[in-house]
Amino acid sequence: MADVDDCDVTMDPEMEILSDEELEREAESFKEQGNAYYIKKDYSEAFEYYTKAIDMCPKNASYYGNRAATLMMLSRHRDALEDAQQAVRLDDTFMKGHLREGKCHLSLGNAMAARRCFRKVLELEPDNSQAQQEVKNADSVLEYEKMAEIGFEKRDFRMVVFCMDRALESASACHRFKVLKAECLAMLGRYPEAQSVASDILRMDSTNGDALYVRGLCLYYEDCIDKAVQFFVQALRMAPDHEKARLACRNAKALKAKKEDGNKAFKEGNFDEAYQLYSEALTIDPNNIKTNAKLFCNRGTVGSKLKKLDQAIEDCTKAIKLDETYIKAYLRRAQCYMDKEEYEEAVRDYEKVYQTEKTKEHKHLLKNAQLELKKSKRKDYYKVLGVDKNATEDEIKKAYRKRALMHHPDRHSSASAEVQKEEEKKFKEVGEAFTVLSDPKKKSRYDSGQDLEDDAGNMGDFDANNIFKAFFGGGGGQGYTFEASGPGNFFFQFG
Question: What pTM was estimated for this model as a whole?
Answer without folding.
Answer: 0.68
